[in-house]
Amino acid sequence: MIAANPIELAVGNMVRRVLHIIREEDVSLTSSAIPGVSVESDDDESDSKSSYSAAAIAAANRSALRAPSLHNLLESIPDPVKTPEAPAASVGDSDSKSRSGDRNSVSWKLKHNVIEGITELLQDLDDYHTHVAEQALEHIHQNEVILTLGRSRSLLKFLLEAKKKRSFQVVVAEGAPRYQGHTLAKELAEKGLQTTVITDSAVFAMISRVNMVIIGAHAVMANGGVLAPVGMHMVALAARRHAVPFVVLAGVHKLCPQYPHKPYTLLNDMKSPAEVVEFGELSECFAAGTGDHTTYVVNPTFDYIPPDLVSIFITDTGGHNPSYVYRLIAEYYSPEDYFLQ
Amino acid sequence: MDSRRRAPVIGPKVRQVGFVTPNADSPGEGVMEKEAGNLTTNSPTPVTIAPTRPVIEIPHSLKADPVAVPSPSHRRGNEVDIPSAPTASYNPNDSVLDGSSLPSSKGGSTINDVYGSLVSESVAESSPLGRPTGSTVGAFAERVKQKTSDSAIGSAVIDGGVASGKPGKGSKANNRGIPALSSSDAKSSEAPADGSKPLKERTSKAERRAKQEADRAAKLAGKGTGGGAGGDPNAQTKNSKGKKDNAPEKKSVQAPEKKGSDKSSENQKKKEVPAPRLQFDDKERVAKSKRRSLVEQTETKNRVELFRHLPQFVYGTQLPSLEAKFFQDDAMHPHPAVYQVGLQYLTGDIVGGNARCVAMLMALRSMIIDYETPPEKTLVRDLVTRTNNHVNFLITCRPLSISMGNAIRLLKAKIAKLDPSLPEAEAKASLIADIDTFMLEKIVFADKEIVKHAVTKIRDGDVVLTHGYSSVVEMILVRAKEMGKKFRVVVIDSRPKLEGRRLLRSLLSKDIHCTYTHTNAVPYIMQEVTRVFLGAASVLANGTVYARVGTACVAMVAHSCGVPVMICCETYKFHERVQLDSITSNELGDPDALVKVAGRKESALEGWADNEHLQLLNLTYDATPADYVSMIITELGMVPPTSVPVILREYRKEPAV
């Protein structure tokens, strides 16, 4: 799945989260029964040895070690559990439950905990908008002017939450070439927020009158850098120039333990040039010349924002500095999972 | 104290707008001075008569009463009015004409200020018009006037004119303009409402008022207002405008709080002079101005608060009325060449600093060729008036660019310097020669020099980035290609004008390797870029580059990536004013242009005007700070941005070409 669309880092993140949950649960279970753990595990292993193939036996042997391999841990758990998709996980839950009778009690406990962890994860995924929006009142105050670019669901909820108690204005930059800023502006205006739509090129002109820039992120990298829709880097630079706080809204599921080495090339998605220039236009331009050279039309989808341009991340677990991101990563992911095959 | 002072002097007609110290030394003045200074110069309008006419019409200032009140309520009223004010200013004929003659103190002053400022704003995004109007001719006229009893009026006008300075500072400006001329009624009505400051104004105004009345009577007797109606209103407008600019001398400092009064003053002005300005709250005036205005414009419904100091019209409403009025035989009607150029500006057929300036100069040139001095008038004054009229018309079509403003200023200076004893044919020939020299030296040859310098900065293997369409940059790139250099170009485009496509087309026709993308992708593409060449509408005295919106973003990203940014700009586009950000002075384009997205049938923003919470903002220019610019390439060489005021001072001491 990751190979299908590498830029959707959330997929990889979820996989890692699940893996991490599993590892954690396993560690806590094994550590809770320290004196008899080796005996128990041996028992388990011996039990399972009798029921599984030789490969499983080899895996079981490995599992005797303190750091069991994932494969081993989840051997008895049906495959669907491994996928991070919510429906699959729930299927996996039921499957594992149905087979629980076949496992011995320790494995069952492990699975049970893992399933609980995954359910929590699913819930977090659904709710994170709300948790992020709850912090809105701390950051947006009366008569402020907020600038944003494009559209983000968490941003929409964030602003509407703040609107309940405070009155402020929003300046929305269009966000070429998708122009989602138009949609966001319409939604905000319908809810009664004073909105102004500007072109992306006017961001520098308007930002001197703006109090805060709030955007939604596509992904947050391990160094605190942000992958955001194209145009955000310019906004971040302009915000730093005018000393305007640059706030990034991101759910914890967007946190990615990878480091952006060449973000513009490796972590980007080039879309069709047709969004920038219509085919008719371009062919007219071509007609003017002899066509010796190819003309490139560039249409990147994402922008990378270095961590020093970001003032704060607002996640469902609270506000964090870009420099704190590595701790969050350590909390939610296991180091062994940083590189998925 | 003011009331005491004014009691003996003032009549009920005197209306004070803003605050005026007896010797016009109020602190506000200082500000006004500055603003006036911004306008530059005292651009007294050559027309002498203007003030009287407006004075006569002042009595209507009844409206002003409510508006005049300097109290917060008054201000509120102003706030409401303000949107219309900006509009008014844009009606070139009306705005300039009326604005200048707006004596109505109360609202008048503010209106004048707003008016003036608007005009100046539009003119060259920095009061070039105000200035050109004034310049030497204005000063000359001013001096002449001062000697006469008109001085009081003149000052009043000037005050109004001065106010025009910076619309942003709105109220202040307005106050200035109006107080002088404001009709006595306005004054009186305002007086009580105003605080101590207005009282001061009243005092001085009262004095001026008395003078004005006397003058007016004399003038009415002397000239046929009817015949000169066409010229007079214009003249007056110009006059008042010029006077406004010259206000500093007598200006009554209008308290900045007079914002509200701006509107009322505008209303006042309308009554006094054919009111072109549309005041939303004054139905009568709106109707009147519509009747008189040459161009019909409707203001947009949803205006952005921050930009209330700039006029904004609903685009597309101007053209039909312009066409309809083409065949009217009006004394105020512009010369056909100017008319044509105005229409071309309106439709966007001619864009770009150089192109617009050249078109305008050619049109004015034909106007001068066809010009005949009317009897009983001197060539100098009448020609300046005529020129002002035409320029006002062009402003209605589209606010003047800074390049145009500078050119007009020089032209007027040339006219003013003409020897009065010269026969008409010679005078005209000399003017035409001057215009030709200006265009040749300052534009054509300057461009050649710039290209010569700039191509030395392009080396083989360079990746050159440029934004939008600039005629100079196009010439540079084409020339570099002709010289055989191997480089490629990245063209950045921005909505809604998408001028980059024009450049792309012309570069492709010369077989230059191009990459094309939109402003958002600039940080992505900047990694490959080695040079950035940008054109500019103007470079201001503090080194700020005033150029098409989006230039600042490009320069900022280039600076952060360590890529040198080179601005290519002729020196005639330099300007003495300073600007710190893009809000204080700008041009608002058609907001509906943002709605349509290429390649999509419907837009999410359809019907945006119906939603009062939703506004669209279409800025035309933005200000790039000087520290983003590595160097400015001019015909005088390649200079750092800090050298711009030096060039302005050393090479532009005289308005001589």
From TrEMBL, chain A:
Subcellular location per the Swiss-Prot or TrEMBL entry: Cytoplasm, Cytosol
InterPro entries the record matches: eIF2B_beta_subunit (IPR051855), IF-2B-related (IPR000649), IF_2B-like_C (IPR042529), NagB/RpiA_transferase-like (IPR037171)
GO MF entries: translation initiation factor activity
SUPFAM superfamilies the record matches: NagB/RpiA/CoA transferase-like (SSF100950)
GO cellular component, one term: cytosol
Keyword Protein biosynthesis applies: yes
Keyword Cytoplasm on entry: yes
Region (Disordered), start-end ranges: 76-104
Keywords: Cytoplasm, Initiation factor, Protein biosynthesis
Oligomer and partners: Component of the translation initiation factor 2B (eIF2B) complex which is a heterodecamer of two sets of five different subunits: alpha, beta, gamma, delta and epsilon. Subunits alpha, beta and delta comprise a regulatory subcomplex and subunits epsilon and gamma comprise a catalytic subcomplex. Within the complex, the hexameric regulatory complex resides at the center, with the two heterodimeric catalytic subcomplexes bound on opposite sides.
Family indicated by similarity: Belongs to the eIF-2B alpha/beta/delta subunits family.
Name listed for the protein in its UniProt record: Translation initiation factor eIF2B subunit beta
UniProt source species: Physcomitrium patens (Spreading-leaved earth moss)
TrEMBL record, chain B:
Compartment annotation: Cytoplasm, Cytosol
GO BP term, pick one: cytoplasmic translational initiation
Region of interest (Disordered), residue spans: 1-113, 144-296
Main localization of the protein described in the UniProt heading: cytoplasm
GO MF annotation terms: translation initiation factor activity
Regions of compositional bias (Polar residues) in chain numbering: 101-112
Keywords: Cytoplasm, Initiation factor, Protein biosynthesis
Record field: compositional bias (Basic and acidic residues): 197-218, 242-287
Pfam families reported in the protein's UniProt record: IF-2B (PF01008)
GO cellular component labels: cytosol; eukaryotic translation initiation factor 2B complex
Coiled coil start-end: none
PANTHER family: TRANSLATION INITIATION FACTOR EIF-2B (PTHR10233), TRANSLATION INITIATION FACTOR EIF-2B SUBUNIT DELTA (PTHR10233:SF14)
Family recorded in the similarity comment: Belongs to the eIF-2B alpha/beta/delta subunits family.
Subunit structure: Component of the translation initiation factor 2B (eIF2B) complex which is a heterodecamer of two sets of five different subunits: alpha, beta, gamma, delta and epsilon. Subunits alpha, beta and delta comprise a regulatory subcomplex and subunits epsilon and gamma comprise a catalytic subcomplex. Within the complex, the hexameric regulatory complex resides at the center, with the two heterodimeric catalytic subcomplexes bound on opposite sides.
Protein name: Translation initiation factor eIF2B subunit delta
Species in which this protein is naturally found: Physcomitrium patens (Spreading-leaved earth moss)
Organismal lineage: Eukaryota, Viridiplantae, Streptophyta, Embryophyta, Bryophyta
